[in-house]
Amino acid sequence: MNKSTLFITVFFASVFFSCTIDSNSKDDIIYFSEDYLPDPIQLTGEKYEIEEITNPRGLLLTDDFILVFERKNIYDNKFHVIDKESGKYLRSKGKDGMGPGEITVISQIEEAEESGKVWAYDPEIRKFSKYDLRESSLMAEEEFRSPETSFFLTELTWTKNQSLFGGAVDGMTKYLHLTRDGDTLHLMGNWRDHVKNWELPNGYRPEDLDANLISSIFQGPIKTTQNGKMVVKAGRSVDYIDIINLDGYHTKTIIGPSPELQHFDIGYSMGYQMPDFGRDKTTRYSDVTLGQDSFFTLFRGKPFRELSSPDNLNRVFEFDYEGNILNQYQLDMPVYGIAVDEENRIIYGVTVDREPNLVRFEY
Q: What does 266-290 look like in DSSP terms, one character per residue?
């Protein structure tokens, strides 16, 4: 099972009495191809020189800060707080460890309800940790762990009323919306119905694929709008984007720029079906960031081993929440994650090169 898996308690009774299951009949599918994309807008990056940043994985813009979080390491300073206006390093947060107030790795940082505070998620010890960005301590001021359950959720995001929304595995349900305490608010979609939108390799049929395999194919980054009402999930291995309106639980699915699944064989790990993409697998959408009226996706389209290559550099696609593509931006540096300042029209990224750091692109 992927280490990013989050275990959340959802009681049997809540599934049958406290939640509803939607119908796929309300969902829309939008296709686009490379030929449909707007002409690329070339962007030139301005790279920062913040020596505290060593091996960045992602970032978040919140209040007056840029937060850059690091990949897994055995050291403290899991993420860095940078003043957005001046670009100056302010402090680092996150003490390494498994004890109270400590954290081992960060897969995502999102805003908390209070100004100047954020939640960081540690997938290895299944813990959310809250940090005060204006305070100097490395330690989290609040934390909670998710109890184990038969429901497995991956790559969760905070939504309205401080509830959680995420993709499910080990079952045909695609998405779960639930409270922080683990009560189910809503179940959405069906993985087997979802995979029917693609032609499968090797003559496979949807009924040949277990839920674990299908959900693994369609894993990817998931984010929410600031008001917590819209969720967007993009595929790391498949060219698809789900736009989910939590008011009514309506989904629009975008498929493109390639309508095809990458070739895979069915493999097995610990008795579970898993997709084996082989050495030629390419990463598709690697990050997504949501604005007020549009959202931005970071598209790679090349193998992970070529991530830092200067050839075939990342592009950013901008869509509105109806699924219309608005702009295509061509970056001149390889980046791992992005965040967008709509007011000042700046795309921030973290580079993946010989000297990784923060970078900004004016658009």
A: EEEETTEEEEE--TT--EEEEEEEE
CA angle, residues 209, 215, 220, in degrees to nearest 5: 145
Q: What is the CA radius of gyration of the chain?
A: 20
pTM of the model: 0.90
- Report how far residue 136's alpha carbon sits from residue 79's, in angstroms, rounded to the nearest whole number: 13
Q: Which residue has the tokens 């900004």?
A: 360
Q: What's the pLDDT tens digit per position in 251-266?
A: 999 999 999 999 999 9
Domains of the chain: 5-362 (2.120.10.30)
Q: Which two tokens stand for residue 258?
A: 């390639």
Residues 186-190: contacts with CB under 8 Å, at least 24 apart = 186/19, 186/20, 186/21, 186/22, 186/249, 187/15, 187/19, 187/20, 187/21, 187/22, 188/21, 188/22, 188/244, 188/249, 188/251, 189/22, 189/24, 189/27, 189/251, 190/24
Q: For residue 7, list its beta bridge partners.
A: 152
Alpha helices (H) along the chain: 12-17, 191-195, 211-217
